[in-house]
Structures are given as structure tokens and as C-alpha cells.
Amino acid sequence: MCAAVVLRAQPGELVFSSDSLDANDTETRLIGHARIADGSILVTADEIHLDSKTRTLVTAIGHVVATRGATRLLAEHLTYHRTDGTFTADHVRLGVDPYYVSGDSASGTVAEITITHATLTYGEPGPWQPAMTAEKIIYAPNQRLRTENSVLGIGPMRFIPLPKLTQDIHDSFSMHLAGDGGFDSKLGAYASVDIHLPTTAGVLLGLDTALYSNRGVMIGPGGGYSRGAEGADANGFFRTGYINDRGNKGVDVLGRPVPDNRAYIEWQHAQKITDNLSLTAELNWWKDSEVLRDFRPREFFPVQEPDTFAEATYAGKNFFVSAFTRAQPNNFDVAQERLPEIRFDLMPLPVAAGIYELFNASAAVLRETEPLGGPRLQSTRLDAYYALERPIAPTEWFAFTPIVGARVTHYADTLGAIRAGNYTRTLGEVGFDTALRAAGTFDYKNTVWGIDGLRHLVTPRLSYRYIPEADKGSAQIPQIDRETFSTYLPPLGLGDTRNLDALHATNTLRLGLDNTIQTRDGTYGSRDLFSLNIASDFRFKRAPGQRPLTDLHTDVAFAPARWLSVDAYSRLTPQTGTLQEFNSGLKIHDGAAWSARVSNNFLRHQIQDYQFDGRLRVNDSFSALTRLRYDARTRRFNEQAYGVVQDLDRTWRISYVVSLYSGPRRESHFGFNVQVEAISF
Q1: Could you tell me if 147 and 164 are in contact, meaning their C-beta atoms sit under 8 angstroms apart?
Q2: What is the C-alpha to C-alpha distance for residues 55 and 81, in angstroms, rounded to an integer?
Q3: Checking DSSP bridges between strand 15-18 and strand 3-6, what pairing results, if any?
Q4: How far apart are CA 490 and CA 259, in angstroms?
Q5: What is the radius of gyration, based on Cα positions, of the chain?
Q6: Strands (E), 82-140
Q7: Separation of first and last alpha carbons in the chain
Q8: How many angstroms separate the Cα of 244 from the Cα of each of 249, 332, 666?
Q9: pLDDT tens for residues 634-659?
Q10: Rounded Cα–Cα distance for residues 196 and 176 (Å)
Q11: pLDDT, tens digit (0-9, with 9 covering 90-100), for 206-224
Q12: Cβ–Cβ contacts within 10 Å for residue 45, how many?
């Protein structure tokens, strides 16, 4: 038997159905596959009771499912008051992916639901998912979750007290939990845990703790913060650590004994203050040069020279104004401090007759201190650059841009017998940039390589700069912004040069040739199959020992298919045919199933090494990895690493890695490491 009543006239009127209907003057009972809706809520259950007179009190029993908008609640028993929209329920479950809540009882309205003696799970409930129990969880549909008197943990193991938590349901779960452990022949057996818990909206605070059997305990506060969607308005993090190191510490980069008390502070910050104003800052204070290398190698090796700076940038309609400060809180390396530098950069601005003006200016207080007690350099500098350029493009395949400019630099502090006085240097610049563009298309198709037509782009380039007497005044100028070691071609123009305090007279012609071969991309636009870029400088004016023609720089990239990529950079002395530098890489992969990369680095008389990185996906849970580093000059493997990576419920990633090292270095010769990191929150 099936009973149904359909009242479809006005909002708030009832639509209900069931397998059977039992009604009297006081109560209507819907029995078997009972269903009732009034336009604001839909309830299904084994049995539903409805008061016959007012039809305002709804009681649902057995396998209850209540749906209101995007909110879906499951319960064993539910009472709903249609007059004010309030309800109570027993043994409830509800959630919005990826948050799931269950509890002994629930009550509330369309705006807010309170679940008592509740359990909150991030992701599908499972043994490895982040979870918490709470005395109360207050859920505002499609907005946020709040907890009271909660305990946080993983799966059934909950041991971290968390009195209150507020979580936006549109954001990932705000918790940082990472672990590391293993054995190192210098550190001994070790284990570390980083726990950062939510304290207020968008703020995580906690401790980073590590125990080393040969060294002691390192501990320090850590945390992170964010504001706005995915941290768009502001975001940052900080890490700290202190240890009284009782092990064999060795010496620092300057040959000084490493102290017993070792510590570090790291902080990074990015903020969008307004639509036009942004702020970035970074602090890296290390008590000794080796503290991160010894205890936090993953943070050390990507950036081995710590930097501390802050920069605020205002973006105008066609200009930028920035204030940049770089400080040196450490006593073991050299940094060009800027205390501060105020800079104005004008974007190319049309003046008249197709002429564009370029302008930038800065005011800086500079300082550099030798860590071993050498002389301190300091400088107060005003600098301005102005240029005019006139792009000429009579055809689409030819462009010629002459440029004329000047740079004026004033130094309030000078060098010499008497460290006083000032000096002003004025430099002029003339030159041009020109390019020829040619293209050819070919109707070639290859389904194996995914090629759908070919386009060849060829662009010969020629640039010239003449900057006479750029080295004048060098005996008086404190050389703080000077040349740094680089094997690539330096910037050619006077306005782009950063080694402002150590310039050289320039009369140079730069020759370049760019080649690119493309095909149509199956998704959008085109993709590059092959590129070959060649460049070299011809010096009409040379320093002693320099050749007229510089080394030939060649950059090659080859990606005929999405599963194959090759890249190479070389630097060759054309007069002798001597290869000075060669860096290359070959990567092959089959989606997520496996990948392999072979690469090399060669710098004559300094570096000749080869690397292999491989990864193989064994099944949904396990992958194998290998990392090899071979030094051909010493004929040894400097590093060998073999490991297994395990994914748990798509939530945690555990790496088990054995490492073997050779050669003189601070790192131990043997290590075994187990690392745990979160991958889904």
C-alpha cells in the first residue's frame, strides 16, 4: 500500500508520502519509506509522526535523513518544529566535504547547529585521518565550524588538548604536523616532531622539538599564519630552535670552533596591504654558520647563505616605488647591507614622435662588514638613470631601437688618505637593440609524438652599448655593489647594471640567435618542441688579458613529447675550442608510474659530477626512489640514497631513506631517515 498527499499550492505547505498511512484526530503516522517536505526541509525516515491539527511538529524515527539546502543530517531520531525551524536529534552525522561530524545529539536552526559529545574528522573517517573529539561542535552551514573543549589527534589516537577551534569550511584544515626520525653516524639516533595548532582564525602556534642521542635536545616555538582566501591578503611562518650541543661540533665556515649553545630563527612574511601596496620580509638569524646544516639539512641546502631583508612596494599606474632594507644579523658571512634603499622606477613612457623615456632613481645607505674584523665599508649614495629610446619597426619582421642615456651617481662617502668628502660620477650611454624575425610553417603530423604541424621561429639579435670611462672614480668609490661570480653574460645596458660601484668601460656588441620550433597544443595554443639560443659578446674595448670575443653561450631545450625533456647549457671558448662549462639534464617519465632524470654539472677545473634521480610507483600505497651523485674528478659517489615512500589514506606520506656519503664533509657517512608529512591538509 502507498499513501501520498501532495499539497503544492504555497511555500510552507506539506508534501508527504509513505508505504502506509495511519491517521487520527491527534496524529498522522507515515510508516515505511516515509517522506515529508515543506519547501524548506526534506525528511525521510522509517516512520514519521505529524500532529494532525497544526501539522507543525514533525517526529522522525529510524534511519532519519534531513536535508536543508546543502546541509544533510543523518540521525536515529529527529524532532522538527516547523513554526520556528528548530530541531533536536539523537545519534547524528552531518558534514560538508571534507569535514564530517558525528555526535550523541544535535539541536539548532537553519543558521546554526550544535552537536554535543561530537567527533570531527577531516576527510573520510579512517584510521589515519586528522580527528578530534569535543564537548560541543557548533556548525554554521556553509560558513564555519567551532569547537569547545576538544582533543585533537589522528584516527582513534587523540592526545592534543585544544580548548577552542574555529575553522572556515572553505579552507583546508589548519594544522601542521610533521615527524622525522632515524639514525645518523654523527647525530646518533634522533627523532623530531613539529606540531603547530590553530589558536585563533588563521593562526597556528606550537613547538618544533628534536632529540639527538649524540647531541641533546633542540626545541623552539614555531608557527604560521594566513589571512584571506588561501593567504592572499597575508601569509607567513616562523621556525626557531635552541640546543646545548654536547657533541663533536667542528668548525664554522671561517675556521672558528662552533660554540656549545647553538640556535636559529627563521621568519618569512608576505602581505598585500592594499591593491597597490605589498610587503615582503625575511629574517634568518643563525648563531653559527652550521646550525641548520647539522640539524635542518632540508632547509639548509636550497639556500646556504641566509638573507635578512624587508621590502615594501607601491605600484602606481606606470611606476613603482619601493623601500628595501637588508640587514646582517649574522657574524660569519658578508652581506651588502642597505639601511635602507628607496627606489623609484618609471615604466617606459611615450614622450613624442614615438620616443619613450626610461627613468629610475634611488637613495641608499650601504654598509659591508668583514666578519673576521677587516675594514668596514660604508657609503651614502644617490643615483639616477635617464634614457630615451625610439622603437622603429617598419615591418613585422624587423625592429630597431636606438637608445641614449645617462647615469649620475653621487657618493657622500669616499675612500682615500682622508676618509671624507664626496664624489659625483656622470656616465653616458649610447647603443641600440635590433632583431630580425622570420617564421616558417610545415604541415607535418606525427601521432606518436603528438605533433600537429610545425612552426619554426628564427630571431637573430644584435645589441650594442658604448659607455666610455665607466670605471672612472674607482679609487674613491667604496666598492660595495660589485660584480659577483657568474658564468652567464652580464646585463649589457647601463640602466640594468647592478654592480654600480665597480663598473668597467664598455664598448661591446652582443650577438644572439634564438630558434624555436613549436606545434599545436591539443588543449590550448602551442607548445615548444625545441629551442636553441646562442649568444656572445664582442668587446671593442677590453681589460688586460681579455679576448675580443667572449665565450659562446648556448642554451638548448628539447621536449618532443610530454614524457621526455632534454635541456643543456654550454659555454665554449671559440678561439681554442675549449669547453668551459656544460650542464645538462634528461628526464623521462610515464605519468605517475615512474620517472628518471640523468643530469650533469661541468665547470672546468672545479666541478665534474653526475646525478641520477629515479622514482617507481609500485602500487597505490608504495613507491621506490633512488638518488645518486657521482664526482668524476675524485672517482667516487658523494651521495647514494635508496628509499621507499608510503602513502596512507592519501593523507600522510612516510619516507624511509638510507643514505651513504663519501668524501670530506660535515654530513655523516651513513644515515637512515624516516620522515612523516601531511599531504592533504
Answers
A1: yes
A2: 9
A3: antiparallel
A4: 40
A5: 34
A6: 86-96, 99-108, 113-122, 130-140
A7: 50
A8: 11, 20, 19
A9: 999 999 999 999 998 778 899 999 99
A10: 5
A11: 999 999 999 999 999 999 9
A12: 26
340's grid cell: 635602507
Asked, for residue 65, whether it belongs to a domain, the answer is yes
User: Nearest-5° angle of CA 23, CA 29, CA 33?
Assistant: 135
Q: 127: helix, coil or strand? A: coil
66: domain CATH number is 2.60.450.10
490 domain-assigned: no
Residue 649 in grid coordinates: 589514506
Tally the domains of the chain: 2
Q: Which amino acid would we find at residue 453?
A: G
Nearest to 395 by CA among 439, 442, 351, 352: 439
Does 670 map to a domain?
A: yes
Amino acid residing at 14: L
Take residue 298 and report the three cell numbers written for it: 632540508
Amino acid letter for position 88: T
Determine the Cα angle at 160 with ends 155 and 163, to 5°. 115
Domain enclosing residue 12, as ranges: 3-139
User: Structure pTM?
Assistant: 0.83
267-to-14, 193, 254, 311 alpha-carbon distances in Å? 59, 19, 25, 14
Q: Residue 214: its pLDDT value, please?
A: 95
**Residue among 129, 224, 205 nearest 162 (CA):** 205
- Going by C-alpha positions, the residue among 206, 92, 112 that lies closest to residue 152 is 206
Do the Cβ atoms of 636 and 662 come closer than 8 Å?
yes
pLDDT in tens, 387-422: 999 999 999 999 999 999 999 999 998 875 445 578
Indicate whether 219 belongs to any domain. Answer: no
Read off the amino acid at residue 454: L
Asked if residue 248 lies in contact with residue 186, where contact means CB atoms within 8 angstroms, the answer is: yes
How far, in Å, CA of 222 to CA of 51, rounded?
Answer: 58
Question: Residue 681's pLDDT is what?
Answer: 65
Q: Where are the beta strands (DSSP E) in 245-397?
A: 261-272, 277-286, 308-315, 319-327, 337-352, 355-368, 377-389, 392-395
CA dist 312 and 446 (Å) reads 51
